[in-house]
C-alpha cells in the first residue's frame, strides 16, 4: 500500500479517512468536493471554557461559538464555504489544494482536542489506456505484453496465459499521490490508475484478445472440399491436354493437299506438298500422257517412271 496505514474504504467516494494515533484522523478529499468534519465527543462548556473553535493549522480560525450560540462567528475567509451542524460538526465545501492542513475542534483554555483531522486534497486521476504491444498465441497458450498508459507515465507488464488463466505477475508504479497497476482479475487483464479519492481502469478479456491471434484451424469439411477441388482441377487439365493432342494429330499442315497419283511427275511438276500420298496403278491412257523416259531397248517402247 503506497499510502501507509491509510486505505481508501470505498472507491470513487468524495473522501476517505484513517486514524493517525488516537485523536488525529487523515481525510483524503477529492478536489472540488465537500468534506465532513465531525465532532463526536460531547461539547461541555464551563465558565473558563466558554468558547468553541474550529481552527486550521492551529492558528487560523474558521468558526467560533458559545454555549448559547450568541457569539457565533464564521471568519471572512470561510463565508459561504462552511455549514455548522449539530454538536458543532462542520461541512467544508468545495475544497481546493490550499485547504489542505490540520483542522482542530477545541474549547478555549482546553488542552484536549474534541476532534482533529489532517486533510489531504487530491485531484481525480487521469484516464488510463490499456494496449497490447506484443503477443504470441497458439491453440494452447498465449503470451502477451501490455502497456498501461496515463497522461503522466506508463507501465509495461507481461502475462503468460493458458486457457484464459494467466500468471498473477503484473506490475505497478506508485508514489505519494497515485498508483498505476496491471493485474489479472476474473479472466481479464486490468490496468488501474488510482489514488485515495478516485480510480480509473480499463480491462480486456484474455480469451478474446488471444483468440484473435491464434491461427485458425481448417475443418475436416474444408479439407474435403480442398481435396475434391484439386482432383477435379487435375482431371480437367488432363482432359484438356489429351484433347489438344488429338486435335494436333488430326490437323492438316498448312498449305498441304491430299494427293492421289499414278505418276511421280504429278508431284514434282506442280511443286505440291502432299499431306497424304496415295499411289494407284496407272491406266493406259494415263500412261500415254505421262512424260516418257526413253531408254535403250527393243522397239524403243516408252517406260513410265512411277
From TrEMBL:
The chain crosses the membrane at residues 220-242. It comes from Hippocampus comes. SUPFAM superfamilies: Immunoglobulin. It comes from the Eukaryota. Its main location: membrane. Coiled coil: none annotated. InterPro entries: CD2/SLAM_rcpt, Ig-like_dom_sf, Ig-like_fold. This is Immunoglobulin V-set domain-containing protein. The lineage of its organism: Eukaryota, Metazoa, Chordata, Craniata, Vertebrata. Keywords: Glycoprotein, Membrane, Signal, Transmembrane, Transmembrane helix. GO terms for cellular component: membrane. The keyword Transmembrane helix applies. It is found in: Membrane.
Amino acid at each position: 500500500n503506497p499510502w501507509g496505514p491509510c486505505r481508501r474504504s470505498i472507491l470513487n467516494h468524495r473522501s476517505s479517512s484513517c486514524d493517525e494515533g488516537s485523536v488525529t484522523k487523515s481525510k483524503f478529499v477529492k478536489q472540488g468536493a465537500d468534506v465532513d468534519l465531525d465532532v463526536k465527543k460531547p461539547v461541555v462548556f464551563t465558565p473558563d471554557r466558554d468558547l468553541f473553535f474550529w481552527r486550521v493549522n492551529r492558528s487560523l480560525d474558521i468558526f467560533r461559538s458559545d454555549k448559547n450560540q450568541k457569539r457565533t462567528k464564521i471568519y471572512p475567509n470561510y463565508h459561504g464555504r462552511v455549514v455548522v451542524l449539530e454538536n458543532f460538526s462542520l461541512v467544508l465545501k468545495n475544497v481546493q489544494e490550499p485547504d489542505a492542513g490540520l483542522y482542530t475542534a477545541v474549547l478555549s483554555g482546553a488542552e484536549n482536542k474534541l476532534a482533529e483531522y489532517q486533510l489531504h486534497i487530491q485531484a481525480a486521476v487521469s484516464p488510463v489506456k490499456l494496449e497490447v504491444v506484443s503477443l504470441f498465441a497458439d491453440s494452447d497458450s498465449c503470451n502477451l505484453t501490455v502497456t498501461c498508459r496515463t497522461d503522466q507515465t506508463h507501465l509495461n507488464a507481461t502475462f503468460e496465459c493458458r486457457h484464459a488463466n494467466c500468471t498473477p505477475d503484473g506490475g505497478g508504479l506508485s508514489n505519494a499521490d497515485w498508483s498505476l497497476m496491471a493485474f489479472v482479475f476474473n479472466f481479464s487483464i486490468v490496468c488501474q490508475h488510482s489514488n485515495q479519492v478516485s480510480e480509473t481502469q480499463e480491462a480486456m478479456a484474455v480469451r478474446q484478445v488471444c483468440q484473435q491471434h491464434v491461427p485458425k484451424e481448417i475443418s475436416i469439411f474444408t479439407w474435403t472440399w480442398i481435396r475434391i477441388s484439386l482432383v477435379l482441377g487435375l482431371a480437367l487439365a488432363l482432359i484438356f491436354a489429351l484433347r489438344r493432342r488429338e486435335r494436333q494429330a488430326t490437323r492438316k499442315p498448312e498449305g498441304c493437299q491430299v494427293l492421289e497419283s499414278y505418276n511421280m511427275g504429278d508431284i514434282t511438276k506442280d511443286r505440291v506438298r502432299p499431306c497424304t500420298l496415295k499411289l494407284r496403278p496407272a491406266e493406259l491412257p494415263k500412261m500415254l500422257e505421262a512424260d516418257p523416259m526413253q531408254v535403250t531397248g527393243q522397239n524403243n517402247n516408252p517406260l513410265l517412271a512411277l
